[in-house]
UniProtKB/TrEMBL annotation:
<dbReference type="InterPro" id="IPR052189">
    <property type="entry name" value="L-asp_N-monooxygenase_NS-form"/>
</dbReference>
<feature type="domain" description="FAD-dependent urate hydroxylase HpyO/Asp monooxygenase CreE-like FAD/NAD(P)-binding">
    <location>
        <begin position="6"/>
        <end position="149"/>
    </location>
</feature>
<protein>
    <recommendedName>
        <fullName>FAD-dependent urate hydroxylase HpyO/Asp monooxygenase CreE-like FAD/NAD(P)-binding domain-containing protein</fullName>
    </recommendedName>
</protein>
<dbReference type="Pfam" id="PF13454">
    <property type="entry name" value="NAD_binding_9"/>
</dbReference>
<dbReference type="InterPro" id="IPR038732">
    <property type="entry name" value="HpyO/CreE_NAD-binding"/>
</dbReference>
<dbReference type="InterPro" id="IPR036188">
    <property type="entry name" value="FAD/NAD-bd_sf"/>
</dbReference>
Amino acid sequence: MKKRIAIIGAGIGGTSILRRLVEHEKFNTEYSVDIYDKEALLGRGFAFKHDSKHLLINTITKETSLKEDLNDYSKWLNSKGIEPSTHTSRDLFGEYVHHIFRDILSNHKNIHAFGDFVDDIIYDPQNTTYSLKSAGVTRTYDTVFFVPGTLEYSDPYDLKGTKNFIHNPYPVPVKLEDTKGTIGIIGSGLSSIDIIRYLVLEKDIKKLYVFSRHGELPAVRSGENDLELKYFIKENIEKYIKNDHISLGAVTRLFNKELRYQNIDTDLFGVEFSHPKDQIEFNIKNIEAVTKIELLILKTENLFTYIYMYLNQKDKTRYLKLYHPLIEQYHSPMPLHVAKGILEWTLEGRLIFVDEMDSVETDNKFIIKTQDGETYEVDKLINATGPTQNIKEDSRPIFKNLLNRMLITDSEFGGIPVSRNFEIISPRHGVLPHFYAIGEIARGTMYRGDGVAILVHKSKEIITHFYETE
Ligand SMILES: Cc1cc2nc3c(=O)[nH]c(=O)nc-3n(C[C@H](O)[C@H](O)[C@H](O)COP(=O)(O)OP(=O)(O)OC[C@H]3O[C@@H](n4cnc5c(N)ncnc54)[C@H](O)[C@@H]3O)c2cc1C
């Protein structure tokens, strides 16, 4: 019996694992569960920690919940006397998750939260146990759920440590407190939108440079219309799995059939824009068709993580070329009112988008050069390029130690390899029994590890496997 359980990381993934564990019919007082994270992140995680109210969750409130009941978050908001707006702040969603987390803790004496990171894990193959080191104390477990979320922020221009360079911009009220001088942001994804909104709405910044390689913004989402899948569904996909493998050709045929059935305008895929303002205007003009694509991506993303596990290496690479750009473009759209704000500030000349960014030099200021040879100077540079996917670039002790002990290795597709049951595949010991990994860290196998809906869903599969095999 695998009664001693540790959960490393208490964000959406860790809290979902905890909830699934205790809600299972087999859970009883013989189990003991320890969950670890930094004190302030327990039951919130990185994305939903205390931060500015201008940082919005990118899914619609009615579609966002930690439970099967998609209205659970809306009900919680109502119970607090808060009118559920279409998109709430991430801070508020964090409050909701934290409330669930605290409830679980107060209802179970056999669950303990530790407000520290785990720095190392020693595996005993004889007894299949795992000894975790945290804050100088070692505790031994039979089962470990490793849910550390996204890796550290990437640093594509090697600027970490440079004065006035903000490597990780969160929480924004702390990191962006001082806004003297000219400000530039690197990146044009959702983090960049967070920063732009905070600096314009909260700090009233009048001029802001946004540098990026391709100048592409997230798509725009308008409504709550629903979409029911007919062909691209798990039952049909399963029919194509032969000898533990699915061919990408079969997936593509089924996906195209669904596109035709849903009357999706495929001309919208891969349209290139010469300026981000053109992209927003195009999205607003075609908002119904664009929203339909986003709904399709939203409904199919879980299935794509399933399919990905059955593709061979060659098809995985082809898949990343064929589907990944489409999913990336439409996976995390910004709300319509946010897009309209960005457009307005761009037309006013308050936001200056510069694409084809090539290099950054530092000389008291940051000198940014583009591939066209243009040069820009800013006093402060904020990194919004997002987290790295390479575990070797993460400087936290747990990654260094697990790599040194050959308990984990890096996957060519990002994160670490895990089995289809989400047990970690160690280069030294093979599949590590009951050492599960879920979330972005497992993206090499599950393709997408982030997103509330995916984590809520996958945590159920993992806990089912845990109880079936303990
Ligand atoms: C800025 C940002 C905004 C996002 N917005 C959205 C959104 O609007 N909607 C959406 O669906 N998704 C969003 N995401 C994706 C988001 O990451 C996931 O939805 C979800 O929060 C991930 O949950 P997680 O538990 O895997 O990771 P996290 O929430 O990051 O939690 C992982 C936790 O593990 C902890 N941890 C790491 N290492 C250790 C260790 N050694 N010991 C103990 N604890 C450790 C971390 O401190 C962290 O709290 C966003 C991500 C980011 C970065």
